[in-house]
Amino acid sequence: MDIPPLAGKIAVLSLGALPLSFALNYVSVLSYPLGVVLMSTLILGLLSLAIYSLSRSDIYYDPLYAVFAVFAFTSVVDLLIALQEDGYMAGFMAFYTKEGEPYLRTAHGIFICYWDGIVHYLLYLAMTGAIRKRKSYRNLGLYWLGSFIMTILVFLPGNILGKYSSEIRPTFFLTVPFVLVPCWAGLRVFSQTHVPTCCTPNMVEEAQRKGLLRRPVDLALIIYLIFAAFFTLFRGLVVLDCPMDACFVYIYQYEPYLRDPVSYPKVQMLVNMFYVLPFYGLAIYALIFPGCSWLPDWALVFAGAIGQAQFSHMGASMHLRTPFTYRVPEDAWTSFFVCNLLYALGPHLLAFRCLWRPAFFLHPPPGPPANHEKQH
């Protein structure tokens, strides 16, 4: 997969969030929730007009250029929020976390901002760069789509159902376009044509003739997916308070963060159990039986989703903003880190395997036409 060049114009425009957020921090009207939402709407509107006037031809070629450009700006804002909440800078986004979205000050919220400000930001620059060069960004878009949807699936219900439900401000409704736009963007990304592969019909036929024992990488991935599925189910049962001694031992010794009343970890594990667990079962099927052409795309989507989820979960489990009783005990750090890192790494290896040698997942070539003798 070729990585397109980063879009320098969008990088410069998005970095304008630094002086702007610093200046807005001293505007008195932003000490009120309504003032924050009105100013945020105005800024997003002016930003959209600026992007349209500067990159009209790119937007006509692909409207997602404007979407990624706006999201790149908000990613820089999220990175500023995370850095400020961790004490690495001051005087930038205090007004927003106080009167706009106070739940961003939680450990989970901080790590969501780090992921958005680093991983998503680089993806936005790469995808806008690909659009400017008229190149395909389908694989990057699928990874971003999974990551972004996982953020929304966990963060929004966690805000509504958790202990911060009483502190929802008008700015919460600004998330509505951030839910609807990715749905539209995802449909456009999926509708893009696949990048042509170098697999010939003979290569596809040869790859699909091999049994599982002759494909050790696939066999190893299947074994991993089985263990990951049991781990996903087990953590889901823990969150559902299943009366098993193993659940209580695990939650108190290794992941007490699952008991945190902020609700993000509970929602995260339930999303994993109801969405990720079925995917693991389908992926095992696709690694056994050839011709499942849907796996490479969905492997990228779920790699992005699980990568974002594990980054936020692991970081929040050990962050100082998490109350001490819910943090991972120091003597369990190694076990916790290794298990969760492997859980995050496996889907990325699966996606890499699908992109590396896709012949097994392509539709089998049509057989030779049957030779019928002439009837006299």
TrEMBL record:
Main location: membrane
GO biological process: lipid homeostasis; regulation of lipid metabolic process
Classification via InterPro entries: EXPERA, TM6SF1-like, TM_Tm6sf1/2
Pfam families, A to Z: EBP, TM_Tm6sf2
Membrane protein topology class: Multi-pass membrane protein
Origin superkingdom: Eukaryota
First and last residue of the signal peptide: none
Listed GO CC annotations: endoplasmic reticulum membrane; endoplasmic reticulum-Golgi intermediate compartment membrane
Positions of the EXPERA domain: 61-186, 217-351
Annotated keywords: Membrane, Repeat, Transmembrane, Transmembrane helix
Segments traversing the membrane: 33-52, 64-83, 103-125, 137-156, 168-187, 219-240, 269-288, 300-320, 332-352
Localization terms from the record: Endomembrane system
The keyword Transferase belongs to this UniProt entry's keyword annotation: no
Family: Belongs to the TM6SF family.
PANTHER family for this protein: TRANSMEMBRANE 6 SUPERFAMILY MEMBER 2 (PTHR14568:SF9), TRANSMEMBRANE SUPERFAMILY 6 MEMBER 1/2 (PTHR14568)
Protein name in the entry: Transmembrane 6 superfamily member 2 isoform X1
Gene that encodes the chain: TM6SF2
